[in-house]
Amino acid sequence: MANKEASVAELTDKFRTSNAVLLTEYRGLTVAQLKSLRKSISEHATYAVVKNTLTKIAANAAGITSFDDDLVGPSAIAFVHGDTVAVAKTLRDFAKANPLLLVKNGYLDGNPLTADEVKKLADLESREVLLAKFAGAAKASLFGAAYLFNAPLSQAVRTVDALREKQSA
């Protein structure tokens, strides 16, 4: 009994401290495949095989009820502590190569996600790519602003030069 309570407390803590949580079903995957999946997302998440009843109790304790109906069959959860998009992409890619892995749903920033929403999340560009695009756009905006500020100045210089030439002539 104490062991179950400790497991629930640990799971509750993982639900509360994770950036996102992605629920999967792994029926039919081998131990080697699960190990490979764990390793592939280890930079951004921990992947744990969970007991459905204990997970439901822990999720509810953390204020998450969206998993209640999907906690059936062999379940495993990716507790994301890093880049959620990267984990969603890795799960999607792994599921393409291993169709026995099913992404059931997720939970991100206080909102439940359907399986389709997790797929859309996986289709987003990575954080690094988005930051690079933003930096490029910001640089272009700054260049444009600098050009606009310099244009009246250079026009004024040309006007003054033209006036000087006119006066000296």
Describe this structure in words.
There is one protein chain. The protein is an alpha+beta fold and 169 residues long. It has 2 domains: 123 residues, Alpha-Beta Plaits (2-Layer Sandwich); 45 residues. 60% of the residues lie in helices and 17% in strands. Strands 2-3-1-4-5 form a 5-stranded antiparallel β-sheet. Helix 1 packs across helix 3. The longest helix is centred in the C-terminal third of the chain and has 42 residues. The model has no long low-confidence stretch (mean pLDDT 86).
Range of strand content:
15-25%
- The SSE order reads HEHEHEHEEHH
Tell me the name of the CATH homologous superfamily of the largest domain: Ribosomal protein L10, N-terminal RNA-binding domain
Q: How far is the N terminus from the C terminus? A: 103 Å
Query: Strand order, biggest sheet?
Result: 2-3-1-4-5
CATH secondary-structure class of the largest domain: Alpha Beta
Percent range of helical residues: 55-70%
- Tell the overall outline: elongated
Counted beta strands: 5
Structural class assignment: alpha+beta
Q: Kindly state the mean pLDDT as a whole number?
A: 86
Can you tell me the CATH topology of the largest domain?
A: Alpha-Beta Plaits
Number of helical elements: 6
CATH architecture of the largest domain: 2-Layer Sandwich
Give Rg in angstroms.
27 Å
